Amino acid sequence: MNIFKTILSISFLAISNFSVNAQIAVNATPTAAQLVTNTLIGNGVSVSNITFVGQSSQKGSFTAGTSNIGMPNGIVLSSGNVVDCVPPAQPSVGQFGGPGDADLLATAQSVTSNPSSSQITSTNDAAVLEFDFVPDGNTVTFNFVFASEEYLTYVNTQFNDAFGFYLTGTNPAGGNYVNQNLALVPGTNEPITISTIHPGLNGQYYIGTPVGHSFNGFTVPIEISFDVVCGETYHFKFAVADCQDDWLDTGVFLEGGSFTSVPVEISFNTTIQGGNVQNDSTVYEGCNQTTDITFTRPGCQSFDSLTVDLAITGTSTNGVDFALLADTIFFPPGVNNITWDLDVFADGLVEGAESIIFTITALNPAGDTVTATGTLWINEPSPLVVSGPDVYYYCITDSSDISGSASGGFSPYTYLWDTGDTTSTISVSIPGNGVFDYYLTATDACGYTDTDTISIIMNQTLAIDTMMMWPSNACDPTGAVSGVATGLTVAVGQPYYNWTGPGTNPGPYNIDASVLQDIPSGWYYFTVTDDVCTVEDSVFVEPLDPPIAQFTASPSSGCTPLTVTFTNNSQNTSDYYWDFGDGQTATVGNSSSQTITYTANATVMLIAYADPTCADTAYASISIVNCGCMDPNATNYDPNAAQEDGSCLYPEPEVIAPNVFTPNNDGSNSFFILDTKNVVQLELAILNRWGNVMYSADEDITILGSFVGWNGKTATGADAEEGTYFYKYVATGINGLQTEGHGFLELIRD
Questions:
Q1: How far from 228 is each of 20, 42, 111, 299, 677, CA to CA, in Å?
Q2: pLDDT one-digit tens code per residue, 675-690
């Protein structure tokens, strides 16, 4: 927040308009009380206990006349005779042999920018003016000018005269002021001396050419403002002295009536778009902003209501250039801050800066009329302009940076490209030759916008027009590539061509030529460089399909002699060499089948050729086995056969049946037994004349080893009657063949 008591803290004066005969007027006769009460003190401050230490001629009042001291009148203290400030007198003659001041000595020794400050051990001819004061407001201000005869010869020496404004009392921020020096270089903690304000340091506050007074150099008028507690009593000490000697005097001028404390203060707070404070004392037509006008009275007045008059003047018109504001301000009890909103109209007229002067008139507790003023300026916004340079290229790159910047209007600025990017510089791709436009829009803090077109102009003439390739043999590097460039710019000699790509030994190809031959399959990269730029392209050398040897053998194994058919399934060639593994070979120019008869095992090889150095080979095994009858029961059994060939031969089963047997237990011919040959299974049934089965058997002769036969008994174990019986049989031979038979037999017991 900007308080109007500090809005004009420093004034720079043009000295070229002053006459060389103009001079300051000094009166050394007023008492200290008269100087403070009648000249220095302004509105809102009451003083008491005024004292002065020093020669009476070291204090006085002044009238600036047309000198360039920068203030119309006031009081002056000097380490010499104040009347010597008037030309042609020289302040250096003011030697009094007077005492110094401890506070001034400490101040002189604290100047860090003076390398000789530690050599300052004494002060002399001190002039010290002190008084108590009670402020009606929360701040106190006054204006002063520091001047010295020591400029510039004794800068950064021990002869560095000192002065100070020392304050004691309650600090509203907490604690107390205790002899706190207020005479500091603006914005620093350094005391003001010839070593802290001069052309080489803080030179903006220095004036080196006196007009109408006798000092060698002096400062611009500087305002001091400090916070106080209204109604409290403070002590103020104003002192100046020579350091280390009593020659070359120093003086300090305080502006008349500037020691004031305004009971009602005015402050402005102007906030523009985004919450940024642009200028507390300036508002702009059409700007997206808010402006608060705050009237503040000190807390010591808050127990009563207060009405103050407000006059609004200036070159602007209340209610025309801005929304109508009232002419009085009312503070209810307990309210110390009143805030109004200022609504500035955008009238669209070019009128230049227009002022709004606020003047407050009020009565202080002593019944005196006091005023406070503040000025706002209504300006028309400067045009917002966004621009950026076009970018020219003669050799295509993948991308380019383009940028723009805004000026005028109100910072900070925001940016928006048609690409959606929000920075002032972006990187964009370049697709090829042509003009590529991008649009940058800037928006300032007030919401004004401007758009510029930024172009990338690409005009590359160099190009690779044609890329060709010849495929490579799969086994040998027989491929080739070539490239043709157009739009070449070559002042002397030839353009540079370069091929790189895969290789075997000694490594990748790297050759300066437009044609590359005898290369294997793979990617090859072609580069052309002329006087302007470089272009690149690539081509893939395709491989020819390699020969693939494939064949099948049917059958691949069997009994000797075995006839085998070989079917050729090879690819990518028609030239073949056969080795059949039995001493026979064949070279053929087609993929026809081959037929060979084998009586022994063999390994067959087929070579498929693309050329004599590029071939593929396939193999197959032929297995021959000894075949025959492997059944030992067969009549043609072959014990050396490894594979059954189905040739086994078997004998016919034979059965011979007797026609008489005598089961009389004499041990001879007691059983009816069939005599068999080449029989492994025998079925036998014996029936009596009535068809009753007297005996039956179904026996595996190979297991039993023999056939038991009928013993002449019935099923109950009784002897069968003598007589004729019927028999029938089924005999199964070794190979499963059967023979059947039947007949009659006689059973005789005697």
A1: 42, 16, 26, 11, 151
A2: 888 888 889 999 998 9
